[in-house]
Design a protein that fits this description.
Blueprint (H helix, E strand, L loop, with lengths): L7 E2 L3 E5 L1 E5 L2 E9 H7 E2 L10 H15 L9 E4 L5 E3 L4 E5 L4 E5 L1 H16 L3 H11 L2 E7 L4 H13 L6 H7 L4 H12 L8 E2 L10 E2 H13 L16 H18 L15 H17 L5 H7 L12 H5 L3 E2 L4 E2 L5 H17 L5
Parallel strand pairs: 5-9, 6-10, 11-12
Antiparallel strand pairs: 1-2, 2-8, 3-4, 4-10, 6-9, 7-8, 13-14
Helix pairs in contact: 1-3, 2-3, 3-4, 6-8, 7-8, 8-9, 8-10, 9-11, 10-13
């Protein structure tokens, strides 16, 4: 792979160390560039690329900032089509790219856009820490693969294959594989050592579950929502520190205990009940957080017993339809998306039930 220290710049072109190979009969050049360099030669062709998904960019920005805070992060290779730009030199394994050349991105536009936004934000700030992060962001090494001699149809096919055939690692596995990450570590600890809920009640590999309480990723984000009062989907730590980890652990273990204790019979059947759908769990967790913050005399169990237990959590409850949660007539079931809207509806519904019950603990 390319050594960035050996990159040379002339008035006319950049020269990288590179490796040439072949995939499905096409020449492909592999090398490393910095994020700043890639931003200069990337071009997006909408005949090949999809529209930018803003939430995807936002998630990647969070991941980049997590790396700039001193954590190890990894990105897979970016894939480009040369469309006649650049030249590989066998003598010395070099790749020449003219300063005004542009390469068509086939996979990685969201990563590069996210890097560009992070860099622009850091450029606005003027402090030592931001300048250090800016330097790290600009010089972040990215591996790229450049395919030569592709037709537009082949570019489109490659883009489609990369984005539909390759399986992305689920957030559940990301949580289980993370090392020295406080929230991920707490998640794994609770799963492994909970005194009344066995480890096999949690999904430790797949993105979703139809038979278990929840995935490790759902538990990870539930920890943040329950203890901090925010909906959290990024795989980072929130405000978790050594000083508050016991509080986070105790609150989360109590929440899980009460959730199982007061859940309807057969509540794990998602075709019949919505209680264990992640968006609903996050909504309940946020309700608990707000209720106790606003009424310190209330206990978590009193909220489960007097409010949550009395709700009809089945798909037959028409209240949720009135509140705007999508309902499919064909399946007779509610359809919760991964966004915060459904969770917010659940939280407000429970807060209304708390007020309407005149509950004083």
């Amino acid at each position: 792979m390319a050594n960035l220290k050996s990159l040379t710049v002339t008035p006319h072109h950049l020269t990288f160390n590179a490796v040439r190979g072949y995939q499905f009969g096409k020449e492909v050049i592999s090398m490393q560039c910095t994020a700043e360099q890639v931003l200069k030669f990337i071009e997006i062709d909408r005949d090949v690329q999809r529209d930018v998904i803003e939430q995807h960019v936002t998630d990647i920005k969070k991941y980049i900032n997590y790396g700039l805070d001193g954590n190890n992060i990894y990105f897979p290779p970016l894939i480009f089509s040369s469309r006649g730009k650049g030249q590989f030199i066998d003598d010395g394994d070099k790749y020449h790219l003219n300063l005004d050349d542009k390469l068509i991105v086939l996979d990685g536009q969201h990563r590069i856009i996210a890097f560009g936004m992070v860099i622009k934000m850091l450029e606005i700030r003027d402090d030592v820490n931001s300048r250090q992060k800016l330097n790290a962001a600009k010089n972040f090494p990215l591996t790229i693969q450049i395919f030569k001699s592709l037709t537009i149809q082949q570019e489109q096919q490659l883009f489609t294959d990369v984005n539909t055939k390759a399986s992305k690692v689920s957030n559940t596995l990301l949580v289980m594989y993370k090392q020295n990450n406080p929230c991920a570590d707490l998640t794994k600890e609770i799963i492994a050592n909970h005194h009344s809920i066995s480890e096999d009640k949690f999904e430790l590999r797949s993105k979703t579950t139809r038979t278990k309480l929840m995935t490790a990723a759902t538990l990870h984000n539930l920890i943040i929502t329950l203890n901090e009062g925010v909906f959290y989907t990024a795989m980072t730590n929130g405000k978790l520190t050594k000083g508050n980890i016991e509080k986070y652990r105790n609150n989360t273990e109590e929440f899980l205990n009460l959730l199982v204790k007061y859940a309807p019979q057969n509540a794990l059947n998602r075709k019949e009940y919505i209680l264990f759908i992640p968006s609903v769990l996050f909504g309940i967790a946020l309700f608990i957080h707000h209720a106790i913050q606003n009424n310190p005399h209330l206990s978590m169990e009193s909220l489960f017993d007097k409010v949550i237990r009395k709700v009809d959590w089945s798909h037959r409850n028409k209240d949720f339809r009135i509140l705007g949660i999508p309902y499919k007539q064909t399946t007779k079931r509610y359809n919760f998306s991964n966004g915060a809207r459904g969770s917010t509806i659940i939280t407000r519904y429970l807060e209304k039930e708390l007020r309407g019950g005149g509950f004083n603990g």
